[in-house]
Amino acid sequence: MGTAALALCSAGIAQAQDATEKAPEPVADATVPEAQAGGAADQGAIVVTGSRIKNTIYTSTSPVTVIDTARAAESGRVTAAEILQSTPIAASAGQVNNTYTGYLVGGGAGINTVSLRGLGDQRSLVLLNGRRLPPSGVGGSVGPVDLSVIPATIVQRYEVLKDGASSVYGSDAVAGVINAITRSNVEGLDLSALGTITHGGGAGAYSLNGAWGRSFSQGRVSIAADYYNQGRLTMAQRANFACPEHRYYKPDGSRADLIDPVTNSYKCYLNTSAEGSVYAYYPIEATGVPRLFDVYAIRPGAVNQNVSGFAPVGGLAQLSYADSRQLRQTVFSPMQRGSVFVQGEYRPEWIDVELYTELLYSKRKSEQVGFSVFRPFYARKSTINPLRDAIVPGLEQYGEVGLIARPQVLYELTSEQDIDVYRGVLGGRGSLFGWSYDAYASHSLSKGRYSSDAIYNDRVAYGTGTNQSDFSPLAGGVCGTGAPAGCVPLDLFSRDVLEDGKFTQQMRDYYFTRDEGRTSYSQTIAEFSATGDLFKLPHGPLSAAVGATVRHDAIDDRPGTLSTDHNIWGRATAGRTKGDDTVFEVYGEFDAPLIRNVPLIEDLKLNVSGRFSHYQSVGSAGTYKVGLNWAVNNTIRLRGTYGTSFRAPTLYEQYLNDQRGFLEQADVDPCVGFDQTDSSGNFLLTNDLIRQNCAAAGLPAAFVGGLNRVTIQMNGGGDQLKAERSTASTVGLALTPPRSGLQIAVDYWRIEITDQISNVGAGAVNACYNADDFPTSGYCSLFQRDPVDFGVQTIDTRFVNIPTERSSGIDFTGDYEHEFNSGTLSANLLASYILEHKIQPFAGNEVQEYVGMLGYPRLVGNFNTRFHRRNWLVAYTLNFTGASSNIGRYGETGQLNGGYANGATYEASVDAFVTHDLFFSYSAKTWQVLFGVRNLTGQKAPIVGEGISYSRLGNYPWSSQYSDGYVGRRYMMRVSKVF
Questions:
Q1: What is the DSSP string of 205-272?
Q2: Which domains does the chain have, with CATH numbers?
Q3: Whole-prediction pTM value?
Q4: For residue range 304-319, what is the model confidence (pLDDT) as tens digits?
């Protein structure tokens, strides 16, 4: 009991399974007893991830973690994404999951990927039974593996290699390797059903699963099928999403937020634009530079500057208000997923070869509901511009009347994805001359369809009678000459449209449509490998593994016609992305026993591996890895590795074509209002460096930004890209005292990538003006300003090679198991302490440290303990995410020095986030019931205030470590039956 109490103070994820359970038959080359899950299990258990030569978990040269899916379910995690993204090796940085509504991510919306060590999902290799899984998704950036493809029903465990392994597995194995191993010992029929509901409603899920298998004299066959339905979570279903607030605090600790006069509560900011209002600009002819004049709101009976029905509200005043329509926005995207997986083995009598096959079909349908602001321009003399006769005080000398109008209308934007993935593997294995060999061929095909709401860009010009690029009137006026048939004036100035988004049916039919694209990605692999002993050494045989492989990948993304024609108003568009690449590789690995059974050296082994790769795209490269494994005695083991890795550019990094997105000037340009002060003379922009650099750039006083949206331009790097190079090293200590039930491993790791392939993104403008080496910083060459209004026109985010990224840390793994008279107690700890995560974006630029920032906690971990007595089992899991802070990063001070909340502070730091899971199960001879609670105490994610250097989701920091806090308490039950 003392051991259990001490263990409850730790953090880690469940991985051990009761050692008395039956071990499965071997799966291909990789075998681990079902009892083995990183816990105190049979020392004869073997794993192969990280080596082509078999070894054990705590005695392997490279650090490996094994996650048993049955144990993971005892913490409420059943999907591949939930299991893998919550492990410490992944949880030290944010992961792409279902919260990415309205954002462009690799593989398209709705995808769930895994990024080990925070180094990117394209640097984490995902295998199924030791063979590559194909990329899948939609859009031109298909590259990572969608974890939804993994057939969760039949996966027995996940083996996670925690260092680089390109010499063993090839490109992409930079940060590590995940190998999903399926059950091969299914006999009869297994059926199960699972349901999850949440305490606050929304985000419920259910699944139906089945597996059937049969062994016969010459082989075996098994079939598994599953269906999973993830319900949506909307902003309306959680208070901290429904009402994002500034969260400012006065020195005495009281709130400093504005009070909304409608609700008499703190003001909600569901959208940063003043939807429901009209921006008015000086006529460009009068001043030469368009300037914001005022913001108008509909007020019945108002008459100001000859604008009937509209009242001015004061310059840059923001009129954001709680618009109930936005509460339909999805925080968690709904998803339906189904898969069928078939595997079989057959040993013909007439030949000493075992034939095997794997067939996989997976389908995903997902949807996101978001909102955007429709804000076209109306020329001064457009006949439907209510500001056309407005008189501008102080500009009468020009003899001009009328203002350029820009209404702000909120509208719903939905997106859908429908993806089918097909994969087939056919191979044979056997023995020849004392060596084991394996040869296989596989072919995979992902076919995706995607669609989203769109507004015809060309029709907007005719419907407003305005050229949207320079705000000049069209010669033919509203719906004049050249307008597509059926033109309807785009009158957005009624209350129904402007404030409530209730477009007339005629306007909807003419301006709104759906844009649909299709994506295909294929991958074909042929590989041969052999393992055996070369010759005897004084202390044992020299073991070897050799092989050769060839792989061909091809992508063809065909966006909808509106996208390729760039005819969508204010939304991302794209050209066709098409390309392919072929690689041929040979590799070898050798395991040599150097010394055995001498004082202080019970066993000393040297492991060496190497690979030669030739890519059609980037040419040839070699990688290697050296490992030393020293067993001091049967309790203490020291191990270390050093190796190089190589990653060729993915197809989308090479061939991505003409991707264009749009952002508002205020969302991109830190110089907007850089010289403005409050009534006390305090600068509203508190970052002195940015303010000085904006002034040095020659931007005009009272700069308010350009009128047009900023175009974000992205393309592949083509033949200008070089392959990434990296080095990885580990040093570890493993303690396995015999008959103690205790096993401990501590491993230091370090990974450094050079010539890293990256795209900087829209943050390039802020990074330029926040750079000490302005204006020579590489960021400053990535965007252009308009010579007239000085607004940012375009930002180039093409893929380029950047100098370096480096990450290092310490992993802790511990397992304990003991059988008492009353039952069996087991415990498991996994934790990662990150020492550094540094990126240098351009040569000569300052190296940026990410560790400790929001989304990059320094310490993460999971701890699980379980007690098993007869038919009953109780399992408790603690999940830990360390404290983090953005204070001192990118101008974040936590202090406001201007504006209505002058002198107030806001939270840019969070305390440690801890959740608890408690589950019970009862197992009879042929059936089992598992039930329990995930996030037992209903812990909410930590609150952060509105800052400048991090993203929020509602009032929470936006990072996957806090997903359980977004949802709250979940109740889960699973019923299983064996026939």
A1: EEEEEEEEEEEETTEEEEEEEEEEEEPPEEGGGSHHHHS----EE-TTS-B-PPEETTTTEEPP-S-S
A2: 2-236+333-368+417-450+518-649+721-759+797-978 (2.40.170.20)
A3: 0.90
A4: 777 888 888 765 444 5
